[in-house]
């Protein structure tokens, strides 16, 4: 009793100390939403509201206040980083001269359409206000395709700086500058020194990291400045930044291994200058894409970019003559000058040229650029008439070819790493174009909230600890319960393992036999493994057998969650044997649900025999809105025998152009008696609809259903070579826009 009383006194004393401390700095410490609302009701210029340390759950902060230029109204944390806003929460504010700092949003999502909003209603906007040293970390709606913004900037003359926005998993732009009323036009916002942390592939439009304006107001001036930000693997979709208004300045930013491009999608008179794109040869990394009039692109550094078509290193689009406001405006009077492009694969001119986008660029220039690359010796693709682009003073390494006959001179390829770790051409060439020092304009550690780490949330397979799992019933389930992200469960050589419960996979985990005889797994449940949100599964050197599965249709070995997953997963199957998935009909290897998305699915050196369902059915996004279920599928060195369903059925419908995948590789496989079951709706052994990159080679079909292709928009790259089709119907395709070489029918 005495101890309790003393403790009580100590707590009161501590609280008083904190209150007085907060009050000393002119702050009012508040401990709950009621105290916050009371404090907001009486705010005067210069007042500071201090949120008490701790976790605030299910709170909607609404702050209407007017500060003065030298006496702002401030909302801050007792200690920066120690105020966690969780659950269904958000922050809205409006008025003049408001400063928000030190907050962390995580472990939840916004119940409305924005997490942080620079307005409290359509007509009550924030001006001359600032959000700084604040974090939003994976505060993602669990419904993957429910759209929200993490930050909506309205009003005028606002600043968003030194914030960390990390890991948005659901649809919707990470940060949007809104211009939906006149009070938000010509806004002069500054967005600087922010850390935009990894954003996973969304698999749909709506994964932009920054959008300024929308097509509707794109003829208006925004005058937003985006500078000195660090974009770390912001790979949600084709557009990393989508500038959709006039008069923006995007300068001195770093784009690190980010898939997509900085796109001047709508609006005119935008300047893109001094940005650094570091692709490190990661797939789909792109640079800068010009659309519209009077755009200026100069003095940018682009290195190691692999993206093709719309995500080339430098892209000048074709436009729609007199098109509606939401289509592509023709490129007129725009510059793409003085850029350094190193080891990058694609420069695209008149890109997107088609029946609708029939207007080539006019009055534009490509001057004094340095192109040095041996990774693609034919880097320029010209899709239409380039007479409206003047070419002068460009330099190209002598190994490379260009079909443009003027404006290029050839020099030896001489690229070295400079003292800042960047690959540069000879100094004399850099001096000739007056580029200045080649050095990152901002370092990662100068960006973001100073208290918040920039650690990776995605954990690699086999990066954790190893657990030995004894043979027996549900020993795998128990071991999974005791495992952590990246851990490996090692099974006994030749051991027999039975699952009488679902094995839920809640984080990336590997299950394998270390050499020797494969451990054998059976399950008495409808699924062996269920990958939950945040999970990932690697199966290595195992024998998976269906003999103990329940006598009902629709069993499977691996299933995704039935519910929406806002984290991408990976599935890898290596050197496994899968037998007798034939208890009842429609026994699949993998069953996926809508609103789930795999970064990669690999089947390597594996044999699958006697299956009544399909192996990989990835066809659950059927709305034809350009959404799909998987980015990369790799099937190599494997044999499929007596599979009634399809080995692979991948579907991406619609005409949207904002994504990269699916990307599929099928190499060195055998397909024997596959795809011929009467329940196999596609009637194909492998069916690829809307796949963007497909490479099939060195494979043999024997007595199987045919291969079927449905090639849609986006100039898909499809190569089929060195394959044999024995007793198998001829390849079916909706058109002939694919490469085929050495395909024989026996
Ligand atoms: Ca987009």
Cα-atom Rg, whole angstroms? 28 Å
Which structural class should the secondary elements be placed in? mainly beta
By CATH, the architecture of the domain at 466-745 is named: 3 Solenoid
User: Total strand count, please?
Assistant: 71
Give the distance, in angstroms, between the N- and C-terminal Cα atoms: 91 Å
Fill in the CATH topology of the domain at 466-745.
Answer: Pectate Lyase C-like
- Proportion of residues in helical segments: under 10%
- How many DSSP helices? 4
Described by strand count, sense and barrel closure, the largest sheet is: 19 strands, parallel
Overall average pLDDT: 95
CATH C-level of the domain at 466-745 = Mainly Beta
Strand content: 35-45%
Ligand names: calcium ion
- Sum up the overall morphology in one term: globular
Which consecutive residue ranges, at least 5 long each, have pLDDT under 50?
A: 1-5, 9-24
Structure in words:
The longest helix has 23 residues, at 2-24. With 746 residues, the protein is mainly beta. Helices cover 6% and strands 41% of the residues. It has a 19-stranded parallel beta sheet that branches. The model is unreliable at 1-5 and 9-24 (pLDDT under 50). Among the domains are: 1-27; 466-745, Pectate Lyase C-like, CATH 2.160.20. The structure holds calcium ion (CA). Calcium ion (CA) binds at residues 205, 208, 237-239, 242, 658.
Write the layout of secondary structure elements.
Layout: H1 2-24, E1 27-30, H2 33-41, E2 48-51, E3 54-57, E4 60-66, E5 73-77, E6 83-88, E7 90-96, E8 98-101, E9 103-109, E10 114-117, E11 126-127, E12 130-132, E13 135-137, E14 149-153, E15 159-161, E16 164-166, E17 175-177, E18 190-192, E19 195-196, E20 210-212, E21 225-227, E22 230-232, E23 239-244, E24 249-251, E25 254-256, E26 260-266, E27 271-273, E28 276-278, E29 285-290, E30 296-298, E31 301-303, E32 314-317, E33 335-337, E34 340-342, E35 347-351, E36 364-367, E37 370-372, E38 380-382, E39 389-392, E40 394-397, E41 408-411, E42 416-417, E43 423-424, H3 427-432, E44 466-469, E45 472-473, H4 475-481, E46 487-491, E47 496-499, E48 503-505, E49 508-513, E50 519-523, E51 527-531, E52 536-540, E53 542-545, E54 556-560, E55 569-574, E56 577-581, E57 588-591, E58 598-604, E59 607-611, E60 616-618, E61 630-636, E62 639-643, E63 648-651, E64 663-667, E65 670-674, E66 686-689, E67 693-702, E68 707-710, E69 717-726, E70 732-733, E71 739-745
Parallel strand pairs: 1-2, 2-5, 3-6, 4-7, 5-8, 6-9, 7-10, 7-11, 8-12, 9-13, 10-14, 12-15, 13-16, 14-17, 15-18, 16-19, 17-20, 18-21, 19-22, 20-23, 21-24, 22-25, 23-26, 24-27, 25-28, 26-29, 27-30, 28-31, 29-32, 30-33, 31-34, 32-35, 34-37, 35-38, 36-39, 37-40, 40-41, 44-46, 45-47, 46-49, ...
Antiparallel strand pairs: 42-43
The protein binds calcium ion.
The site of calcium ion has 7 residues, from strand 23.
